[in-house]
Design brief:
106 residues; mainly alpha; 4 helices; 79% helix; elongated
């Protein structure tokens, strides 16, 4: 039996990822730490809500940042955004599973 991917959570991840990428691509924006924190927190929270789709959430949140940075600035260093997003998603996955287990035992 295949696990279903929660489309609503994935679409929300995409919308937030595009919003983060838009802010990050502005000429006046020069704060990679805030961008990384936004990617990490967004991925962690959404992956905690839907632990089975954590890897997909991590990619969907981080990919727009990479895409816009490569297209607009030729900056392939933005691949670290996907790494940060995936790390957040993995942590969110474990938090979501722990909360789910705890809810089952109570």
């Amino acid at each position: 039996m295949r696990a279903r991917v929660p489309l609503g959570v994935v679409l929300l991840a995409l919308v937030v990822g595009v919003a983060i990428a838009y802010v990050d691509s502005r000429a006046t924006w020069d704060d990679a730490g805030v961008t990384a924190a936004a990617l990490f927190i967004t991925s962690a929270v959404l992956a905690a809500v839907s632990p089975r789709a954590a890897w997909l959430i991590g990619f969907v949140v981080g990919l727009p940042v990479l895409a816009l940075n490569v297209v607009l600035h030729g900056n392939f260093g933005a691949v670290m955004g996907i790494v940060v997003s995936l790390v957040g998603a993995v942590i969110g996955h474990f938090i979501g599973r722990a909360i789910g287990r705890r809810a089952m035992t109570t």
